[in-house]
Specification:
Layout (H helix, E strand, L loop, with lengths): L3 H8 L2 E3 L3 E5 L4 E4 L2 E11 L1 E5 L5 E5 L3 E7 L2 E4 L7 E2 L11 E4 L4 E10 L1 H8 L5 E4 L6 H16 L5 H23 L7 H6 L1 H12 L7 H7 L4 H12 L3 H18 L4 H7 L5 H12 L3 H8 L2
Parallel strand pairs: 2-10, 3-9
Antiparallel strand pairs: 1-11, 2-11, 3-8, 4-7, 4-11, 5-6, 5-8, 7-12
Helix pairs in contact: 3-4, 7-8, 9-11
Length: 301
């Protein structure tokens, strides 16, 4: 059986955008716009800082990785006395995945994950705006190995590079999330932290393992040896949703995926625990804003 994180990744529509490499020497400063997605960055050589303004500056050195979730605009620089240039217009990104400023004393690679809007909240709402995985993290060696291969593919011209880069970026996202959990204080990564919590993670696993079962707050709490109130409070504090609200949203994700594969509305309703198409239809429309039959007609050839 897949663990909950693997199952979520198999269902949500992750779109890994192109990966890029930035090389710089001398004094430099570039600003980048806000991006409603998950963006990763890693310093392969040298050092610099990332600055979100209002005193939110973070030093970055070789081996450090970071994630940005729904990030505001930021400045990437190595000198306070240099006027920041627009990082999007300063280089010809349309023609090359590699941008250069004088030399290569400092080297970074970056990439962006975007999601179907209805999927994005599960991960984006779980992550802080800026998540640093320093080179001293116990998992940094594994992450660096993937980054080294990714860097070779970005710079190279071998056949299949685009496919391999997409797969490596997906692997990197999971590796960075694992590394974040190792350094996490237990609660700051929301749903991601919930998966690592012995009791709440087990409850999520039970819901994922049998979404059609008529789970109630009582049965879920009892399954992980917690009282209803303690379970409900802990679940919501980590996940950001009440247990049964999370179950509803998970069932609808499963339903939408099955409809995309061509399953009938009646079949899907039964598979996710609804005894009537009407009840299922109301739940589906509540989450996705469209009736399941209409959605089915829009995705099935």
């Amino acid at each position: 059986m897949m663990d909950p994180l693997s199952e979520v990744f198999s269902l949500i529509n992750i779109r890994g955008a192109r990966c890029t490499r930035f090389e710089a020497s001398g004094r430099w400063s570039y600003r980048f716009p806000a991006k409603p997605a998950v963006k990763f960055g890693a310093v392969l050589a040298g050092d610099c800082w990332i600055d979100f303004g209002e005193g939110q500056r973070h030093q970055l050195g070789a081996g450090d990785c970071f994630l940005l979730a729904n990030a505001p605009s930021y400045v990437l620089a190595n000198d306070d006395h240099v006027l920041s240039d627009d990082g999007m217009s300063a280089f010809d990104w349309a023609q090359s995945d590699v941008a250069r400023h004088e030399g290569n004393d400092t080297v970074l690679i970056a990439g962006t994950f975007s999601f179907e809007e209805s999927d994005a909240d599960l991960l984006l709402d779980s992550l802080p705006t800026f998540l640093l995985i320093p080179s001293s993290n116990a998992s940094a060696t594994v992450v660096r190995s993937t980054l080294a291969i990714l860097d070779i593919e970005i710079k190279g011209t071998q056949i299949g590079a685009a496919v391999l880069t997409d797969r490596l970026v997906d692997i990197l996202l999971v590796q960075v999330l694992r590394a974040a959990l190792i350094q996490d204080d237990g609660d700051s990564l929301g749903w991601i932290s919930a998966l690592a919590d012995p009791r709440i993670g087990r409850a999520i696993g039970l819901m994922h393992g049998d979404a059609a079962y008529p789970w109630s707050l009582e049965t879920l709490a009892a399954s992980v040896a917690m009282s209803r109130s303690a379970f409900s409070k802990r679940f919501k504090s980590l996940v950001g949703l009440a247990p049964l609200d999370y179950l509803l949203r998970w069932r609808m994700r499963l339903a939408r995926n099955a409809l995309r594969r061509g399953s009938t509305v009646a079949t899907v309703a039964s598979e996710v625990g609804y005894s009537s198409e009407s009840a299922f239809g109301h739940a589906f429309k509540r989450i996705y804003g469209i009736a399941p039959r209409r959605y089915w007609r829009s995705v099935v050839p």
